[in-house]
C-alpha cells in the first residue's frame, strides 16, 4: 500500500471489517451523529479481543496515513474512528477537526458530521450561537452535493432557529421536500407532521400527512409505522382499518417503540 493513498484507505477499511462482528456491528455510521453513541464492546475472550483491537488500531494507522496525504474518504473514516473510539481513544474534538478537513475537500458525509457536532455545541451553549451558522453552511454544502440527510438537517436547524440561524419555516419545508424526494425516511416523517399540524405548509392535510407517513413506514421507520397506524386506527387521511393499524403498531413495537406497544395493547383490550 506504500505510496498509493486510496489503497491505504482501502486497507484500513479491510482491517476494520475483519475485526468487527458482522452480526452485531456494521461498518457504516449514520451521517447524522446527533444520536450515534460509542459502540458497546461485548464481553469476549481476551485473546480474541486483543487481536480485534490490534486490527482496529492498524486500521486507524492506515486511515491516518491516507488522511495525512489528503484523501477525503480516509479523513472521513478517521473522523468516525475518533468520534466512536474505534482503534483510538474517543475524541469528538479530534473527529471534528478531521471531518472539517474532509469537508473542505467536498466530502458530503464529513460536511454533515462536522455540522452535527457544531450544531450540538451551539445547542448546548447559548454563547456559541455562531457555530450554528457554520453548521448551516456545511449542511448547505453537503446538500448541493445531493446529500438528503444534509437537506433534512438544514430543515431541522432552520425550523428551530438554532443558535444564530434565522428561523424560516417555509425554507425548512422546502428542504424537507427535497430530502423526502431523495428518500430520507426522517424527512417524510417530519413532512407528515407538518401537514398533520398545518405548520409551514399551505394548508393542513390529513391525506398528505398519511401519504408521507406511508413512505416513512415503508422504509422501516418505527415512528412512521406508529403514525401510520394512528391514521388507520382513527381514519385520518384514509379509510379506517384496525387490522392494518395493529400490524403497524406491532412492527414499530418490535423495534422498541413504546407508544406503539401501548396502542397495540390498548386495541387488544379495547381501551383508549
Written overview of the protein:
With 272 residues, the protein is mainly alpha-helical. The chain has 13 helices and no strands. Helix 5 (108-124) packs antiparallel against helix 6. It is globular, with a radius of gyration of 21 Å. The N and C termini lie far apart (63 Å). Mean pLDDT is 81; it is low at 22-45.
Compile the SSE list and pairings:
Elements: H1 5-19, H2 46-68, H3 72-84, H4 92-104, H5 108-124, H6 130-144, H7 148-160, H8 169-181, H9 185-197, H10 206-218, H11 222-234, H12 242-254, H13 258-269
Helix pairs in contact: 1-2, 2-3, 3-4, 4-5, 5-6, 5-7, 6-7, 7-8, 8-9, 9-10, 10-11, 11-12, 12-13
Question: What are the key terms here?
Answer:
single chain; 272 residues; mainly alpha; 13 helices; globular
Distance between the termini: 63 Å
Q: Please, how many helices?
A: 13
Enumerate the spans where pLDDT stays under 50 for 5 or more consecutive residues: 22-45
SSE class:
mainly alpha
Largest sheet entry: none
SS strand fraction: under 5%
The ordered H/E elements are HHHHHHHHHHHHH
- General shape: globular
- State the total count of DSSP E strands: 0
Short description:
This protein has 13 helices and no strands. The protein has helices spanning 5-19, 46-68, 72-84, 92-104, 108-124, 130-144, 148-160, 169-181, 185-197, 206-218, 222-234, 242-254, 258-269.
